[in-house]
Amino acid sequence: LFYTSRLCLLVLRWGCRLFDDIVFEKTFVPEQCVRAVKVGDYVRYHYNGMFPDGKKFDSSYDRSSTYNVYVGKKQLIEGMDRALVGMCVNERRLVKIPPQLAYGKEGYGDVIPSDAILHFDVLLLDVWNPDDGVQMKTYYTPENCSRKVEVSDYVRYHYNGTLLDGTLFDSSHTRMRTYDTYVGIGWLIAGMDQGLLGMCVGEKRIITMPPSLGYGSNGDGSDIPQQASLVFDVVLLDLHNPKDGVSIINQDIPQHCHRKSVAGDFIRYHYNGSLLDGTFFDSSYSRNRTYDTYVGKGYVIGGMDEGLIGVCIGEKRRIIIPPHLGYGEEGTGTKIPGSAVLVFDIHIIDFHNPSDTVVITTNYKPEVCETLAKKGDFVKYHYNASLMDGSFIDSTYNYGKTYNIVLGANQVVPGMEEGLKEMCVGERRHLVIPPHLGYGERGVDGEVPASAVLIFDIEMIEMEAGLPDGYMFIWNEDVSADLFTEMDADKDLQVLASEFSDYILRQVNEGKGRLAPGFDAYRIIENMFSNQDRNGDGKITEDEFKLKADETTHDEL
Question: Gene3D superfamilies in the record, alphabetically (predicted)?
């Protein structure tokens, strides 16, 4: 299809002999034409110039350079000035120009003869106007946009850079690394400095700029021609300002918070770590283990040190950390890029301070509570054990029997020893035991995490008074003056282990003596016999035999 502004004035039987305006055919029309050439626009285009017989007289392709010129300002032959008006980028036209709109009777040196009709195969690559500014078109906006890019902010973004005809000249995606820079302070070409302002993290926009706001009349090497319009398809991944501090968003605060963390506390917490655009980089949940650390002592990055202060047990909060309080310009390698803002969603499991002692709360005390548990007493109690976050550990009720220990014999963790002291039968207590008085930094594999604070709800069920400190057996009445002879059942002037054991057990059964409660009676008696058997020959002679009153280093008789 050919277009003319005026039809041939002289029509003969063989068709048009002469024409006084251009004729052009649109050989390719792009699907979208965002902008058409107007008088006064600056264009870049390729062309092949031919005579009607197909003989080529000129070509921009041969020079490997587009023809760049203003339209409608008599910088071109009049026919080309007219032909370019209305063209779209990537449109292709076959233009026929009569001599009076080309080089006329004079021609052009030895290249174009007099009164020559010229044919041009034109491909438009670029169009802009000196009055153009930056054009921005957002094609994706995130649901939440709490902050927009401002002058002096530092941003991380990905981009594809193309010319107006779609030719790719650069891409951060191919380098698999964001472009990181300050905005509005001249670190970027002017058009990008303007185009990034007002963006949200996660936003995607097309930024189109004229060469005056790009690389101007010089271009940039072989990739960006001179006087080229630039198109950047940008997705913003991150932004912060050097003046930013840690941002805290409280997500869930327990109804009861008896204590908040302070510098020097040891905290156990779970976290999910991500970048500002939502990219996940780490999680304690995936390891099925809390992250345990001191706070306020530089054991963690500065932003986390700050964000963990003032939390309650059970609290959930989001901590947003700028890079200068995170991993800085270097990042951590593949997971956390340089200059990245970090987002931590944390859940506080427990915390304590190394100076903490056992916290004892009495929930119930009988009206008559006179006999109190002390060191050496044999006590029987029930307990429910859990962690600070309510996680169940163990319960004696599940086994249908009490837990039985001798106080002061190191049979339970120190915190439980402390919690049982001075209890009476029937009393119920709530114990909070810090890890250094519990299972310490190692915990109990599969049951109690390392450095965990323990919660015990205990009830004293039964108590048997122990023996005086240092004794494993005592007499309830005066000691026989002829004790050795009474033990020597066969009167052979020596006491065997069986004679010794039978005698002690008989005294206990008859109520004349007491063994320390809570221990294996036979082990106690065996130990007593061994202490009396000075030479270790398996029997006690009268010379070897001594009472407790005569001893300073043994705990028998």
Answer: 3.10.50.40, EF-hand
